[in-house]
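Q: What does the assembly look like in three dimensions?
Context provided by user:
Components: four
Sequences:
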Amino acid sequence: MINASIIGASGYTGGELLRLLTAHPEVEVVQATSRKKLGEYVYQTHPNLRKQTKLKFSSPTALEPTDVLFLALPHGQAQGNIEEYAAAADYLIDLSADFRLRDPDLYREWYGEEHTAPGWLEKFIYGLPELHREELSSARYISGVGCNATASNLALLPLRQAELLEAEKPILIEIKVGSSEGGASANPGSHHPERSGVIRTYAPYGHRHTAEVIQESSLENVSLTMTSVDLIRGALATVHGTVKPGVALKDLWKAYRGAVNENPFLRLVKARRGVYRVPEPKILAGSNYADLGFDLDPKTGHVISICAIDNLMKGASGSAVQSMNLALGFEETLGLEFPGLHPV
Amino acid sequence: MINASIIGASGYTGGELLRLLTAHPEVEVVQATSRKKLGEYVYQTHPNLRKQTKLKFSSPTALEPTDVLFLALPHGQAQGNIEEYAAAADYLIDLSADFRLRDPDLYREWYGEEHTAPGWLEKFIYGLPELHREELSSARYISGVGCNATASNLALLPLRQAELLEAEKPILIEIKVGSSEGGASANPGSHHPERSGVIRTYAPYGHRHTAEVIQESSLENVSLTMTSVDLIRGALATVHGTVKPGVALKDLWKAYRGAVNENPFLRLVKARRGVYRVPEPKILAGSNYADLGFDLDPKTGHVISICAIDNLMKGASGSAVQSMNLALGFEETLGLEFPGLHPV
Amino acid sequence: MINASIIGASGYTGGELLRLLTAHPEVEVVQATSRKKLGEYVYQTHPNLRKQTKLKFSSPTALEPTDVLFLALPHGQAQGNIEEYAAAADYLIDLSADFRLRDPDLYREWYGEEHTAPGWLEKFIYGLPELHREELSSARYISGVGCNATASNLALLPLRQAELLEAEKPILIEIKVGSSEGGASANPGSHHPERSGVIRTYAPYGHRHTAEVIQESSLENVSLTMTSVDLIRGALATVHGTVKPGVALKDLWKAYRGAVNENPFLRLVKARRGVYRVPEPKILAGSNYADLGFDLDPKTGHVISICAIDNLMKGASGSAVQSMNLALGFEETLGLEFPGLHPV
Amino acid sequence: MINASIIGASGYTGGELLRLLTAHPEVEVVQATSRKKLGEYVYQTHPNLRKQTKLKFSSPTALEPTDVLFLALPHGQAQGNIEEYAAAADYLIDLSADFRLRDPDLYREWYGEEHTAPGWLEKFIYGLPELHREELSSARYISGVGCNATASNLALLPLRQAELLEAEKPILIEIKVGSSEGGASANPGSHHPERSGVIRTYAPYGHRHTAEVIQESSLENVSLTMTSVDLIRGALATVHGTVKPGVALKDLWKAYRGAVNENPFLRLVKARRGVYRVPEPKILAGSNYADLGFDLDPKTGHVISICAIDNLMKGASGSAVQSMNLALGFEETLGLEFPGLHPV
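A: Here is the predicted structure of the complete assembly.
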C-alpha cells in the first residue's frame, strides 16, 4: 500500500481521482485539498462517494509528505509551486496543462505567455501510456493529458505507427464534447436551459490542445475544431486525413488491430450490423477504454479515424492512474476495471 | 395599435413577452428595460429575436408613459414602486408574485414577510382567464400567475366547477418541472452536468405557489410537491384527490369536456392508443395551450387530474398576454396562435 | 468459484447480470442464452462488455446444469418451465414477476390471469435483502423484485420498521422513471423524438408493482402513479403518507439512520446545502445503492419519503446478485462495489 | 385562398407541412393522406394540431384535384407515379429525393439505381429559394431539399457568391444532426435508451446528400461526414475549406453580410460575448431561419463556415412552403413567421 494525496480535489478530475484511488487496492488516499470546501466531507461535493470514504477536504497549505501527489489544479497554478510539490512526494502527477509540452516555445505559442518553470518541462513524461508506456515505467514526474488531445492522439496512433498518412496533407480533427469538459463551475453558457441540446462550435480552430497533438504526433498541419453537444461525459474525435497512395482498407484493418492488441484499454469498434457499429462515448462513462474506428474513401484516399473516450477517465484521471500504475510497478489496469454501462 | 413596455426584459418571462408582443398585430413594444444589459440589442440575450426587432434594452429609470406596462421583475420588487408603475400606464400587468394574493395574511404566511403595499392587493385581478375571464375584461391591474399554481388550478378546474371533489379530503399535487422555471441566472444546481438527467424533489411540501392554489380553488387541504426533471420548458401537475360517493367516470368526462369547450386554450387529451394518450408538456413549448387529462380508480374514488403547460407561456407570459387581450378588448387568442411543435 | 448461467441474456436486466457476474470474483458465467442473438458475441449486444468476455449467446434449449441459474425472461415465461429450470441448477433466481407474489389470488388480481405453477409460489423468497436478509441466507429459490416496488418498499422501510405510519390512511406513491424500465425493444413510444423530454404519466393508478408493495408492506391502501421522464437509468419513488399523532421530525431521523446503518446499500441523503440535498437516481447509474430521504409537514402529519435507485441494479440485477451472495455465503456486497459516477 | 393537399402526411415532414399550411392565411388544406392512419384525425398523430384542425387522414388512392400538391413520401415512391401526381394539381412540390438532381447519372451514382422517370428531372426546380429564387417564381414543379445538403449549401453560399474558395482544394463538411432526421418510424437505433446521449458518426463519408451539394455548389471535391447527437430538431454543418491567397477576414464579413441582407431567412451570428456567439440549431426549432457563422485561420487559409437549421423547416417543409409562396406570388415569408423560442 502506498499513500496518495490530491491537490484541488473538489473539481471533476479531482473527484474522479478520488473515486478511482479510494477503490484502488494498492492506494490509500490520505489527503484531498480544497480551499473552497475546506472541512467538508468529500462526499458532500462528490455524492457518489457517500459511504465510500469519510475523508474531508483539507487545506492545500497543510500539505503532508506522501508517496504520490496528484495535482488537479486549474491550469497555470502548478508551475508556480512546482518545487514545493516535487519536494512533498516521490511521484508527482500533474493533471493540468502546465507540464504537457516539452518545448517552452510551443507553450508560449499556444498559451500566450511564458512558462514560469521551463527547466522542469524536460523532466516530465507525457502521461499517455499508449504512447509512452516504457518511459512511464521509470518516470517520477508525469503530466496529465488534454482530453481532446488524447482522443486525437489515439485516433492517430494506428495511422502513425503503420505510417499510412500523407504527413504533409492537412489533418482536420472535429471533436464533439460533453459538458463536463467545461469543469465544475457554473457559468451563463453552462446554465441548463442554455446548454441542453446544444450543437455549439465554440472553437472553430486554435484550441490549445492542438499543441499536444502536434507534439505527440509530429504532424505539423493539424487543426482542431471543437463542438459542444448534449452529453455530460464523453468526447469523440473524428480525424480527417489522407492516406499515402496505394493504402487500402486492409492496411487500416491491420494497423488498428495491431494497436488494440498491444494496448489493454484500446478497442476496435467497426461492425456491419447492430446498434453499436462505431465508437460512441456514451457507453464509456466511467471506463478507461478508448474505442477506435475508421473508414476510407478509396476514390480519394480520404481516411476518417474515430476515437471515443470518457474525457474524465482516459482523457484525464483514468490515464493518470494508469500512468501511476506503470510508474509504481502495479498491474497497468489495476483499479481501472469498470467497463462502463449499457444502456446508459 | 397600442404601446407596451416591459420592465425587466432580460429574463425568461421578459423574453417570452418580447417574442409575443413583437409579433402581436395590435401592439408595438416601445421599451424593454434591463439594468444588466443596458444598451445591448434584445436579440443578443434572446437570440430567437434576431431579425425580428432592433429594440435595445433601456434603463428602468427612464420609464416613459405607455398604454400597457408589463412588470417582469424578481419577486418583491414591484410592490415597492407600485405607485410609480401605476402612474406610468393605463394598464399594469405584473408577472411577479407580488399581487397574486388578495389577502395580506395569506401573503405573510407563505412569503414570510409583510406585504409593503397591502392596499393594492384588492385592486388586482388574478390573471388566469380560465378563472377570471369576466373580471379581466374590465381590469386595469392584472397580476401574473405562478406556473405551478396554474397547472394545479387548471387541473382542478373541471373537478371544482362540476363539484365532484370531496373538499375535506387531502389534495396532493405532484408537479414535475423543467429547468426554465428556475429563471435565467446560472447557479451550481443549474450547471448542466449537475442538472441534466435529474429527478430532484427540491420541495417536498411548502412551495409558495400553494397559496395561489388555496386562494383560487377555495380548497384548504392542499399540498404541492415539486420535482425537477430533464426538460427546459414545461410543467405537469398531477392532482390526487377523492371524488364524492357515486361520482363515476362519465361524470368526469362531462366535466372535462365542458371545460375544454368553454376555454379556447384548454384541450382534453385522453386516448386509448397512439403515443400521445395523456397530457405532455413537451409538445406545448411556445404554445398557450393547457392540456388536461384524468383517471378514476372506481374502487377507492381516487381521482387523478393532470394538467400540462409550458411554464413560460400559460404559466406566465402567455396568460399575461391573454389577459391583456381581454382587458383591451382584443380577440382573446390574438398573438397566441402558435400551436407548438411535433416532434420536439 | 461457482458456475452461473443466464436465460434471456440479451435484454437489459440480462446484460446487467452479465456485467456484474463477469466481474464477480467468485462466479464464472458459463452460459448466456438468447434465441434472437444466437451465436453472436454478447458484446455485440452489450457493447460495454467488449474485451471483457468472449462469451457467445447460446440456445435456451441447450441448457447445461449449473450452480446458479438466473432467469431474465419476459414475464410469464418462467412459470411454464419452472420444473425444468429448477432441475438444472442448485439455485434459481428468477428476475421476472412470475414468483414475486406468495398469494395466487393476489397474482390473479393484478396480473389478470391464473398462475400456472401456484404450488411453487411458496418456495420462493422475495429477493430484496433489506427485507428478507435472513431467509435469503438459506434460500434456494429467489424471486427478483419489481423496480418500482423496490423504490417504494425501501422508501417505506424506515417508516414501517419504526411503526410511524397511520396504516389506514391512504399511501400515494408517485414514481418517476427512466426509459430503460421499458426494456430493450423499440416501440413507437420509445422512439427518441417522441420519448426524449417527456413527462408522461402512463399509469395514473393500477400499476402491477402495486401488488408487491402491498405484499411486502402489509399496507392495504396503496396506490402507485407512474410517470416517465427523460433519463435512461433511474427511478425515484415519492411516498406520501400520514404519520401517527405525535410523531416528530426527530423520530424520522432516528428511523432512517437506523435503516441505513443496518443495510450496506442504503444511504441517507438529507442535507441543507450543496447541490445534492435529496436522493437523486442519476448518480446511482450502475450502483447498487438506494438513497433515502424524507420530510414532514408538522402541521398536517403529511410525511414524504423518497427513495432513488438504478432500476436495473437495486431494482433488478443488483438485488439479484446481492441475494445470490447471501444465499451462497459470499460477502453481501461482493461484485457490487461500483459506487456510481459524478458528474453523470 | 388556394387548396393544398399532402400525400404521406403522417411522417415528420408531412406533419410540419400540416402545421404550416393549416395556419397559412392563403391556403386551405383539403386532403392529407396516410395509408397507415386512414380515417384517424391528424391530431392523433401530430398532437400539436389538436384544436387546430378537424382534418382526418384520407386514402392516397382517393386523390382529388387540388391547386398545390405536396408529396411527403419515402424516397423512391414519387417517381413511379409522377404523371398521376402532376395531373392532379397545378403545382407539385415533392419533398423526397426523387427530383432533386438534374442529372440521371448523378442520381445513379449516389442512389445506386436508375431513375425511373428521368425525363422529369429537368422540369423540376430545386426548392431552395436562397439559390433559385428567380426560377421558383415561375416554377410549377419544385423539388424539396435534403436537410444536410441545405445546411451545407447555405454555409457555402457566401463563400461561393464572393468567389473566396480555392475550388480545387477538398471541402470537408462535418454535419451534426438530431434524431428527427431519421423519420417517424422507430428502430433499434432510435430506441431512447440507445439513442439518447449519442455522438454517433453513422456515415463517415458517402452520404447521399453529397450529390445535392455537388450539384448546387459546382464544387467537385466535397465530402460529408454525418454524426448524430442528442437533439430532436436541428442540423449544424461545419464546412472546412481553403480560401484563395490574400482573402482576409474582412472579405468574409462582407460576403456573409451581403448574403444575410439579400435573404429574409438568413442571419449572421458572430459575436464576441454572450452565450449565443455562433449559430446553434436548438433555438431554430420550428423556425425557417438559417443562421450562418464563419472563421478564418489566417496562417493557413483554413476557412470554417457554419450553418444551423431546423432540419424539418429550412431543411424540408419550411423551404417547401417558402418555395410555394414564391411560385404562387405570395409574400415569401408568409406563414413562416414563427421565430423560434428561447430558452428551448
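Follow-up: Chain D touches chain A through 47 residues (CB under 8 Å).
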